[in-house]
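Researcher: We're teaching a course module on how sequence relates to structure. For the next exercise, students receive a sequence and then see the predicted structure as tokens, so they can try to spot secondary structure elements on their own. Here is the exercise chain.
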Amino acid sequence: MHELYDILHILGVVLFFGGMIVSLKWLFFAERRGQETMMRSAVKRTHQINMFVTAPGIIMITLSGFFQAPYVGGLFSQSWLIAGLALFALSVLLWVCFFIPAYYKLLRITANFSESLPPDFFTLLHRLYFFGVAIIVLPLGTMTLSIIKPELW
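Model: And here is the predicted structure for the students to work with:
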């Protein structure tokens, strides 16, 4: 059973990172092109990626991680596991509290403005890039901790 949890955990990591990286890349390149129709389409598509790829990845990581915890002595038995869980939880918290609401705001803006997108759209988009990078970097710390398993305290 442990091998199944490992496979689900790795698949969840691939979905999570893949969804986040593709979303940010699409938005960034759509903005660089300067075509508003492409920008509107990128916002719609990246929202779908987050709902159908990134969110399932988060769920798979979380559930498989909790099911794997007994194999290393329990959820709070290892300092690297506690630190990694904290980094991942912070990443998910940023995703839920900022990233998803920002996407809904971007979707509303693209739906309400038929002509050119307002400056507020791009301000929000640039904040989304910042938090998106943080959401990706934090779990990289988790991944590093889970690979080298250092004794932190």
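Model: If you want an answer key for the exercise: The chain has a mean pLDDT of 93. The helical segments are 2-33, 36-68, 79-112, 119-148.
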